[in-house]
Protein backbone atom coordinates (compact mmCIF):
# COMPACT_ATOMS: atom_id res chain seq x y z
CA UNK A 1 0.00 0.00 0.00
CA UNK A 2 1.12 3.55 -0.70
CA UNK A 3 0.89 6.66 1.45
CA UNK A 4 -2.13 7.70 -0.61
CA UNK A 5 -3.83 4.40 0.23
CA UNK A 6 -3.25 4.95 3.95
CA UNK A 7 -4.75 8.44 3.73
CA UNK A 8 -7.74 7.10 1.82
CA UNK A 9 -8.35 4.52 4.54
CA UNK A 10 -8.03 7.11 7.29
CA UNK A 11 -10.48 9.48 5.62
CA UNK A 12 -12.95 6.66 5.02
CA UNK A 13 -12.83 5.61 8.69
CA UNK A 14 -13.31 9.16 9.90
CA UNK A 15 -16.18 9.76 7.47
CA UNK A 16 -17.96 6.57 8.59
CA UNK A 17 -17.58 7.48 12.27
CA UNK A 18 -18.69 11.08 11.61
CA UNK A 19 -21.81 9.74 9.90
CA UNK A 20 -22.45 7.53 12.92
CA UNK A 21 -22.29 10.55 15.21
CA UNK A 22 -24.80 12.35 13.01
CA UNK A 23 -27.13 9.37 13.35
CA UNK A 24 -26.66 9.41 17.12
CA UNK A 25 -27.55 13.08 17.38
CA UNK A 26 -30.73 12.55 15.36
CA UNK A 27 -31.69 9.45 17.37
CA UNK A 28 -31.51 11.05 20.83
CA UNK A 29 -34.92 11.34 22.45
CA UNK A 30 -36.56 11.84 25.84
CA UNK A 31 -34.58 8.96 27.30
CA UNK A 32 -31.46 11.12 27.18
CA UNK A 33 -33.18 13.95 29.07
CA UNK A 34 -34.53 11.50 31.65
CA UNK A 35 -31.05 10.03 32.08
CA UNK A 36 -29.60 13.49 32.80
CA UNK A 37 -32.38 14.20 35.27
CA UNK A 38 -31.82 10.88 37.04
CA UNK A 39 -28.08 11.55 37.31
CA UNK A 40 -28.75 15.01 38.71
CA UNK A 41 -30.92 13.50 41.43
CA UNK A 42 -28.26 11.00 42.51
CA UNK A 43 -27.26 11.53 46.15
CA UNK A 44 -24.20 9.34 45.65
CA UNK A 45 -22.04 8.73 42.59
CA UNK A 46 -22.51 7.72 38.99
CA UNK A 47 -21.21 4.15 38.74
CA UNK A 48 -20.03 3.47 35.19
CA UNK A 49 -19.43 -0.09 34.01
CA UNK A 50 -18.75 -1.95 30.81
CA UNK A 51 -16.68 -4.84 29.50
CA UNK A 52 -13.95 -4.83 26.86
CA UNK A 53 -13.95 -1.77 24.61
CA UNK A 54 -17.09 -0.49 26.35
CA UNK A 55 -15.16 -0.65 29.59
CA UNK A 56 -12.29 1.41 28.17
CA UNK A 57 -14.80 4.00 26.95
CA UNK A 58 -16.53 3.82 30.34
CA UNK A 59 -13.31 4.74 32.14
CA UNK A 60 -12.99 7.85 30.01
CA UNK A 61 -16.64 8.79 30.62
CA UNK A 62 -16.05 8.32 34.36
CA UNK A 63 -13.06 10.66 34.25
CA UNK A 64 -15.00 13.28 32.29
CA UNK A 65 -17.94 13.16 34.70
CA UNK A 66 -15.68 13.43 37.75
CA UNK A 67 -13.70 16.35 36.33
CA UNK A 68 -16.83 18.33 35.49
CA UNK A 69 -18.54 18.22 38.86
CA UNK A 70 -20.37 14.87 38.80
CA UNK A 71 -18.87 12.37 41.28
CA UNK A 72 -18.27 9.14 39.38
CA UNK A 73 -16.49 5.80 39.71
CA UNK A 74 -15.76 2.99 37.29
CA UNK A 75 -16.54 -0.53 38.49
CA UNK A 76 -15.19 -3.39 36.38
CA UNK A 77 -17.98 -5.94 35.88
CA UNK A 78 -15.70 -8.96 36.39
CA UNK A 79 -14.28 -7.51 39.61
CA UNK A 80 -17.82 -6.66 40.72
CA UNK A 81 -18.58 -10.37 40.75
CA UNK A 82 -15.71 -10.89 43.19
CA UNK A 83 -16.56 -8.31 45.84
CA UNK A 84 -16.62 -4.94 44.09
CA UNK A 85 -20.43 -4.92 44.09
CA UNK A 86 -19.94 -3.50 47.57
CA UNK A 87 -18.73 -0.29 45.90
CA UNK A 88 -22.26 0.35 44.64
CA UNK A 89 -24.68 1.91 47.14
CA UNK A 90 -28.40 2.58 46.98
CA UNK A 91 -27.62 6.31 46.63
CA UNK A 92 -25.82 5.73 43.33
CA UNK A 93 -26.96 5.61 39.72
CA UNK A 94 -25.45 2.96 37.46
CA UNK A 95 -24.55 3.77 33.84
CA UNK A 96 -24.08 0.44 32.06
CA UNK A 97 -22.46 0.28 28.61
CA UNK A 98 -22.64 -2.61 26.14
CA UNK A 99 -22.94 -2.46 22.38
CA UNK A 100 -24.83 -5.75 22.15
CA UNK A 101 -26.59 -5.45 25.50
CA UNK A 102 -25.93 -9.16 26.02
CA UNK A 103 -22.44 -9.09 27.58
CA UNK A 104 -22.55 -11.95 30.12
CA UNK A 105 -20.13 -10.33 32.58
CA UNK A 106 -22.68 -7.57 33.25
CA UNK A 107 -25.25 -9.98 34.66
CA UNK A 108 -24.23 -9.69 38.31
CA UNK A 109 -24.29 -5.89 38.37
CA UNK A 110 -27.65 -5.85 36.57
CA UNK A 111 -29.07 -8.34 39.08
CA UNK A 112 -27.61 -6.37 42.00
CA UNK A 113 -29.22 -3.11 40.87
CA UNK A 114 -32.58 -4.84 40.41
CA UNK A 115 -32.40 -6.55 43.79
CA UNK A 116 -31.64 -3.36 45.73
CA UNK A 117 -33.60 -0.87 43.66
CA UNK A 118 -30.54 1.02 42.40
CA UNK A 119 -31.43 3.11 39.32
CA UNK A 120 -29.72 1.92 36.14
CA UNK A 121 -29.26 3.63 32.79
CA UNK A 122 -28.49 1.19 29.98
CA UNK A 123 -26.72 2.11 26.74
CA UNK A 124 -26.74 -0.46 23.91
CA UNK A 125 -27.60 -0.82 20.23
CA UNK A 126 -30.47 -3.30 20.64
CA UNK A 127 -33.69 -2.14 22.24
CA UNK A 128 -34.72 -5.75 22.93
CA UNK A 129 -31.43 -6.68 24.61
CA UNK A 130 -31.23 -8.04 28.14
CA UNK A 131 -29.53 -4.86 29.35
CA UNK A 132 -32.02 -2.38 27.93
CA UNK A 133 -35.06 -4.43 28.94
CA UNK A 134 -33.76 -4.47 32.53
CA UNK A 135 -32.73 -0.79 32.64
CA UNK A 136 -34.83 1.94 34.23
CA UNK A 137 -33.85 4.20 31.35
CA UNK A 138 -32.74 2.75 28.00
CA UNK A 139 -30.64 4.76 25.54
CA UNK A 140 -30.52 3.00 22.19
CA UNK A 141 -27.51 3.59 19.98
CA UNK A 142 -28.53 3.79 16.30
CA UNK A 143 -27.42 1.02 13.97
CA UNK A 144 -24.36 2.31 12.15
CA UNK A 145 -21.71 0.38 10.21
CA UNK A 146 -18.40 -0.17 11.96
CA UNK A 147 -15.55 1.63 10.22
CA UNK A 148 -13.47 -1.55 9.83
CA UNK A 149 -15.53 -2.74 6.86
CA UNK A 150 -15.99 -6.23 8.30
CA UNK A 151 -18.36 -5.15 11.06
CA UNK A 152 -16.41 -6.91 13.80
CA UNK A 153 -14.05 -4.23 15.15
CA UNK A 154 -15.73 -1.80 17.60
CA UNK A 155 -15.15 1.59 15.98
CA UNK A 156 -18.30 3.53 15.15
CA UNK A 157 -20.09 1.97 18.13
CA UNK A 158 -17.41 2.98 20.62
CA UNK A 159 -17.18 6.46 19.08
CA UNK A 160 -20.93 6.92 19.56
CA UNK A 161 -20.76 5.67 23.15
CA UNK A 162 -17.89 8.04 23.92
CA UNK A 163 -19.73 11.00 22.39
CA UNK A 164 -22.88 10.08 24.30
CA UNK A 165 -20.87 10.11 27.54
CA UNK A 166 -19.49 13.55 26.68
CA UNK A 167 -23.02 14.78 25.97
CA UNK A 168 -24.22 13.52 29.36
CA UNK A 169 -21.29 15.11 31.16
CA UNK A 170 -21.67 18.50 29.47
CA UNK A 171 -25.43 18.55 30.01
CA UNK A 172 -24.85 17.90 33.73
CA UNK A 173 -22.07 20.48 33.84
CA UNK A 174 -24.16 23.20 32.25
CA UNK A 175 -27.10 22.50 34.53
CA UNK A 176 -24.81 22.88 37.55
CA UNK A 177 -23.33 26.09 36.09
CA UNK A 178 -19.86 24.59 36.39
CA UNK A 179 -17.37 27.43 35.78
CA UNK A 180 -13.77 27.49 34.50
CA UNK A 181 -12.71 28.28 38.06
CA UNK A 182 -14.50 25.14 39.28
CA UNK A 183 -12.88 23.16 36.49
CA UNK A 184 -9.46 24.39 37.55
CA UNK A 185 -10.00 23.01 41.07
CA UNK A 186 -10.12 19.52 39.52
CA UNK A 187 -7.20 20.20 37.13
CA UNK A 188 -4.44 21.92 39.14
CA UNK A 189 -1.61 20.32 37.15
CA UNK A 190 -0.28 20.60 33.62
CA UNK A 191 -1.03 23.13 30.91
CA UNK A 192 -4.76 23.12 31.64
CA UNK A 193 -4.14 23.92 35.29
CA UNK A 194 -1.85 26.76 34.28
CA UNK A 195 -4.45 28.24 31.94
CA UNK A 196 -7.05 28.17 34.68
CA UNK A 197 -4.82 29.38 37.53
CA UNK A 198 -6.14 32.38 39.41
CA UNK A 199 -4.18 35.44 40.39
CA UNK A 200 -4.45 34.52 44.07
CA UNK A 201 -2.63 31.25 43.31
CA UNK A 202 0.44 33.09 42.02
CA UNK A 203 0.57 36.46 43.79
CA UNK A 204 3.20 37.51 46.30
CA UNK A 205 1.95 38.35 49.78
CA UNK A 206 2.76 40.09 53.05
CA UNK A 207 6.33 41.21 53.59
CA UNK A 208 7.19 40.45 49.96
CA UNK A 209 5.11 43.40 48.77
CA UNK A 210 7.04 46.58 47.82
CA UNK A 211 5.02 49.27 49.60
CA UNK A 212 5.74 52.74 50.98
CA UNK A 213 3.60 55.64 52.13
CA UNK A 214 3.19 58.80 50.09
CA UNK A 215 5.49 60.83 52.39
CA UNK A 216 8.37 58.34 52.14
CA UNK A 217 11.57 60.00 50.80
CA UNK A 218 12.58 58.65 47.43
CA UNK A 219 15.93 57.59 48.85
CA UNK A 220 14.06 55.11 51.07
CA UNK A 221 11.64 54.16 48.29
CA UNK A 222 14.58 53.24 46.05
CA UNK A 223 15.87 50.91 48.76
CA UNK A 224 12.50 49.15 48.87
CA UNK A 225 12.48 48.78 45.08
CA UNK A 226 15.94 47.24 45.23
CA UNK A 227 15.23 44.97 48.21
CA UNK A 228 11.91 43.55 46.95
CA UNK A 229 13.15 42.91 43.43
CA UNK A 230 10.02 43.71 41.41
CA UNK A 231 11.27 46.96 39.88
CA UNK A 232 8.34 48.94 41.30
CA UNK A 233 6.99 50.19 44.58
CA UNK A 234 3.35 50.75 45.53
CA UNK A 235 2.33 53.91 47.35
CA UNK A 236 -0.36 53.82 50.03
CA UNK A 237 -2.26 56.46 51.95
CA UNK A 238 -2.57 56.72 55.72
CA UNK A 239 -5.25 54.01 55.72
CA UNK A 240 -3.16 51.58 53.69
CA UNK A 241 -5.11 52.02 50.45
CA UNK A 242 -3.15 51.80 47.23
CA UNK A 243 -3.05 55.25 45.63
CA UNK A 244 -0.12 55.05 43.24
CA UNK A 245 2.90 53.22 41.91
CA UNK A 246 6.48 54.23 41.20
CA UNK A 247 7.97 52.53 38.14
CA UNK A 248 11.22 52.93 36.22
CA UNK A 249 9.40 55.33 33.92
CA UNK A 250 8.52 57.55 36.87
CA UNK A 251 12.15 57.48 37.98
CA UNK A 252 13.35 58.61 34.56
CA UNK A 253 10.80 61.41 34.43
CA UNK A 254 11.94 62.72 37.81
CA UNK A 255 15.65 62.02 37.43
CA UNK A 256 16.54 65.68 38.00
CA UNK A 257 16.43 66.10 41.79
CA UNK A 258 14.90 62.65 42.32
CA UNK A 259 16.19 62.22 45.86
CA UNK A 260 14.65 65.49 46.96
CA UNK A 261 11.13 64.19 46.22
CA UNK A 262 8.76 61.97 48.16
CA UNK A 263 7.17 58.85 46.73
CA UNK A 264 3.84 60.67 46.50
CA UNK A 265 5.36 63.35 44.28
CA UNK A 266 6.94 60.87 41.88
CA UNK A 267 4.25 58.21 41.66
CA UNK A 268 1.71 57.55 38.92
CA UNK A 269 -1.69 57.85 40.58
CA UNK A 270 -4.51 55.28 40.28
CA UNK A 271 -2.32 52.40 39.11
CA UNK A 272 -3.71 49.45 37.16
CA UNK A 273 -4.71 46.55 39.42
CA UNK A 274 -6.32 43.16 39.12
CA UNK A 275 -8.72 41.20 41.33
CA UNK A 276 -7.44 38.14 43.24
CA UNK A 277 -10.05 35.85 41.68
CA UNK A 278 -9.22 36.85 38.10
CA UNK A 279 -7.61 34.22 35.89
CA UNK A 280 -3.84 34.54 35.60
CA UNK A 281 -4.31 34.62 31.82
CA UNK A 282 -6.20 37.88 32.24
CA UNK A 283 -3.28 39.32 34.21
CA UNK A 284 -0.90 38.32 31.40
CA UNK A 285 -3.17 39.93 28.82
CA UNK A 286 -3.31 43.20 30.77
CA UNK A 287 0.43 43.30 31.31
CA UNK A 288 1.16 42.57 27.66
CA UNK A 289 -1.34 45.16 26.48
CA UNK A 290 0.17 47.92 28.63
CA UNK A 291 3.78 46.69 28.31
CA UNK A 292 4.20 46.43 32.08
CA UNK A 293 5.70 43.64 34.16
CA UNK A 294 3.51 43.49 37.27
CA UNK A 295 0.13 44.33 38.75
CA UNK A 296 -0.90 44.98 42.31
CA UNK A 297 -3.79 42.80 43.41
CA UNK A 298 -6.75 44.68 44.90
CA UNK A 299 -10.19 43.23 45.58
CA UNK A 300 -12.72 45.56 43.88
CA UNK A 301 -15.18 44.75 46.68
CA UNK A 302 -12.60 45.41 49.39
CA UNK A 303 -11.24 48.51 51.09
CA UNK A 304 -8.62 49.34 48.46
CA UNK A 305 -5.70 47.80 50.33
CA UNK A 306 -3.27 45.82 48.18
CA UNK A 307 -3.58 42.08 48.85
CA UNK A 308 -0.69 40.98 46.69
CA UNK A 309 1.37 41.51 43.57
CA UNK A 310 1.65 39.34 40.47
CA UNK A 311 4.70 39.55 38.20
CA UNK A 312 4.94 38.44 34.59
CA UNK A 313 7.71 36.03 35.61
CA UNK A 314 5.25 34.20 37.88
CA UNK A 315 3.03 33.58 34.88
CA UNK A 316 5.89 32.58 32.60
CA UNK A 317 7.07 30.07 35.18
CA UNK A 318 3.83 28.05 34.84
CA UNK A 319 3.73 28.29 31.06
CA UNK A 320 1.59 31.37 30.48
CA UNK A 321 2.73 34.31 28.43
Briefly summarize what is shown.
It is built from 15 helices and twelve strands. By secondary structure, the chain is α/β, with parallel strands linked by helices. The longest helix is centred in the N-terminal third of the chain and has 25 residues, at 3-27.
Molecular structure report:
This protein is α/β, with parallel strands linked by helices and 321 residues long. It has two domains: 3-178, Glucose-6-phosphate isomerase like protein, domain 1 (Rossmann fold), CATH 3.40.50; 199-317, CBS-domain (Roll), CATH 3.10.580.10. The chain has helices at residues 3-27, 30-41, 53-67, 77-80, 107-115, 130-134, 156-175, 180-186, 190-195, 199-202, 218-228, 248-253, 263-266, 280-290, 312-317; strands at residues 46-50, 72-74, 93-97, 120-124, 137-140, 211-213, 233-236, 242-246, 268-269, 273-274, 294-297, 308-311. It has a five-stranded parallel beta sheet, sandwiched between helices. α1 (3-27) crosses α7 and α3 (53-67) runs parallel beside α7. The longest helix is centred in the N-terminal third of the chain and has 25 residues, at 3-27. The two termini are 45 Å apart.
